[in-house]
Every structure is written in C-alpha cells, then in structure tokens.
C-alpha cells in the first residue's frame, strides 16, 4: 500500500485528507501536537482498514520529524508528504506594528523551517517511490496583502518559494503548493475570532488534492477552487 505522512492531521483539512486517503487504501503516518485528539482521529481513520501510525509532537522538533519518517519507513516507504501543520504567529492576528517577534519566529520555524526539515528527512524515501510527491499548504495571504495577516502570509510566501525551488531541484518528484481557500477550521477561528462568515468545510476541498494525485500535473502552485472547477 502507498504510504503518506500528514502533519497537522488531528483536525480540519489534515484529518479530512487522511480520511480520504485511507478510504483509497493508503497507509498513514499522522502528526499533531495534541495527543488525545490525534489518538481519536487515528482510530477513526483506521476504520477504513489501513495501517495508521499516530505520533504526537511538534514538527519544529528535529527528533519528532525523524520519528515520523522512521514510522513511514516501517510501513514500507513514503510516496506522499503533506506539510499541513501551521502556526499563525499570533492568536488572534495583529498588525505588523504589534506582531510579537517571537511569534513571527514561531511561524517561520513551523511553517518554513520544519517543513523543509521534514522534506529533507523524507527525501530518500520519496526519491525511491514510484511517484513521490510533496504537498505544501499555501494561503492567499502568501500572495495578497491583508491587514493583520503579514507574519503568517510572509511565512507562507517563503514556503511557496521553497516548494518552487524544490520542484526544480527534484525533477523526479511532484511538488505542489496548494492554496485551499478560506475554510471553517480552528486555525481560522483562532486567527479572526468572532468572524462568523460562511466558509467551506475542509472535506469539501479534499477532491482538489485527490485530483493532483490522480492527474500528477507538473510541480507548481495551485488553487483548490480552480482544481475543483476542473481548471489549474
């Protein structure tokens, strides 16, 4: 069975994607910081009959990243790495004039440094997979200027650039940066408390990610809305 590593997998988009892949027969290595929630998620995902390894920890911890890749190796390799875990840098979001620099460092550490660190750990397995792929979660804040989203957006813009360069340097892999659009997630609720606007449920954008896996377009940056509409 193909094996995927998904970070930030206990809730939201990470969990929805894990459910969809398990339904397709993928074995999974799941990461999140909250052990109890991750355990419940893993149990639910495993009901699809696939093997699920759930490792609670912080992706900013090099030892934890190594443990995730080691778990994938025990399952037989790694065909897909999904860097979904994210940090806002401040909760709720604030203007740059008030953004704590330690918060910005945390956002960069989780969203950029840890993502690259996990790619580096997993590359030997991804390179030997028949169709290895990396998905990094982007944001429209990486490309547009929104008030209070500066720190988070800067970290996602940096991640987009890393994904673009990785795609050039690893022509045998597919490297897709995906902007999922606004979703009804705990991350968004923490970013903008009290915003009760209607947003997509995470599961509704999963077909966009499955389309990438099915069609394997060249490495690049994609919007989930375009993929769902049959465009790229």
UniProtKB/TrEMBL annotation:
<keyword id="KW-0560">Oxidoreductase</keyword>
<dbReference type="Pfam" id="PF00106">
    <property type="entry name" value="adh_short"/>
</dbReference>
<dbReference type="InterPro" id="IPR002347">
    <property type="entry name" value="SDR_fam"/>
</dbReference>
<protein>
    <submittedName>
        <fullName>SDR family NAD(P)-dependent oxidoreductase</fullName>
    </submittedName>
</protein>
<comment type="similarity">
    <text>Belongs to the short-chain dehydrogenases/reductases (SDR) family.</text>
</comment>
<dbReference type="InterPro" id="IPR036291">
    <property type="entry name" value="NAD(P)-bd_dom_sf"/>
</dbReference>
<dbReference type="InterPro" id="IPR020904">
    <property type="entry name" value="Sc_DH/Rdtase_CS"/>
</dbReference>
């Amino acid at each position: 069975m193909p094996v995927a590593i998904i970070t930030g997998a206990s809730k939201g988009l990470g969990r929805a994607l894990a459910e969809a892949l398990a339904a397709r027969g993928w074995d999974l290595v799941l990461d999140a910081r909250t052990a109890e929630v991750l355990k419940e998620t893993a149990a639910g995902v495993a009901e699809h009959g696939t093997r699920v390894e759930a490792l609670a920890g912080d992706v900013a911890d090099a030892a934890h990243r190594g443990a995730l890749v080691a778990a994938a190796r025990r399952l037989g390799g790694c065909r897909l790495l999904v860097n979904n875990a994210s940090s806002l840098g401040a909760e709720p979001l604030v203007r740059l004039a008030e953004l704590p620099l330690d918060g910005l460092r945390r956002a960069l550490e989780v969203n950029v440094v840890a993502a690259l660190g996990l790619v580096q750990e997993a590359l030997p397995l991804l390179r030997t997979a028949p169709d290895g792929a990396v998905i990094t979660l982007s944001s429209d804040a990486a490309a547009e200027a929104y008030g209070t989203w500066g720190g988070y957006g800067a970290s996602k813009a940096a991640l987009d650039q890393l994904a673009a360069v990785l795609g050039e340097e690893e022509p045998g892999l597919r490297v897709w940066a995906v902007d999922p659009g606004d979703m009804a997630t705990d991350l968004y609720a923490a970013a903008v408390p009290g915003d009760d606007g209607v947003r997509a449920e995470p599961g509704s954008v999963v077909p966009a990610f499955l389309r990438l896996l099915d069609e394997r377009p060249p490495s690049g940056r994609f919007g989930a809305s375009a993929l769902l509409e049959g465009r790229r």
